[in-house]
């Protein structure tokens, strides 16, 4: 049997297998998933199919000949599980380092997130997933200040204006609870903790339900801000060992109370039980500019990926404003 015919046969056999094999959660944003029909590891299937060709065709005919077919399916599934590269992050609706600033009590705030990936990955991270390259993704983030230390948030909708394989889509929604040290901007050291619960379309994440736990630690040192978010994500599989470590950090210089220039880093290392190899990790470095005050607060930036699991170039724009006056 020729290579191309063998590969088609292998994929067809595996696609009729009774179950899909799935890994754990990526962040920010996708789950590393193995599926026998996925082009990212077609080469692995081909190599495996060559090895299993003899097992299949050398098996004896008769009532037990179906056993060879079963062996081939199982073998190809195992090869897919072991040979498929994990993807730690995919496109995302929010690219932001949290600084423990929240809306004042009684204030509604709206932030519009828009992210464009002109040079990104051209293969889906799992079958049917939105392709990052040329995609425009975002979310409307609604926030309400409940107390000086608690803000309730809702991302609705999470959406894609465009992707090459899915077009315009609604990708889900997220609920978040953000707890912080009150009036963080007035303190040299500040902290907080954010919880998010996401309901996802199956072309946005390969798990319907995912969550994020985002600690916030930082310091205001004169005109400099140092902030770190050691984020962990979960898709509620694998227990504590299944948690994915996707931290983000920011170093910013404030020229005045309106303008700031920042360097940001977003990473995805894989599960806490053991990080994935570097070529499968997600690493992006960003330059960002903030402008606060006036009708809109604006943050914009450009990010460059420098690892195998990252997009090469991504642009972001965040626009926000309070929707009502301060409560009296």
Provide a concise account of the structure shown.
The protein has 328 residues and is mainly beta. The protein has helices spanning 3-15, 42-57, 66-83; strands spanning 21-22, 33-34, 108-119, 136-147, 150-162, 169-180, 189-200, 209-221, 224-229, 232-234, 244-245, 248-254, 259-268, 270-271, 282-291, 297-305, 313-322. The model is unreliable at 3-60, 62-67 and 76-87 (pLDDT under 50).
Task: Label this structure with key terms.
17 strands, mainly beta, 328 residues, 3 helices, Porin, 2 domains, 42% strand
Structure description:
By secondary structure, the protein is mostly beta strands. It is 14% helix and 42% strand. The protein has a twelve-stranded antiparallel β-barrel with strand order 3-4-5-6-7-8-9-12-13-15-16-17. Strands 1-2 form a two-stranded antiparallel sheet. A hairpin with a 2-residue loop joins strand 8 and strand 9. Helix 1 crosses helix 2 and helix 2 runs antiparallel to helix 3. The longest helix has 18 residues. The protein is globular.
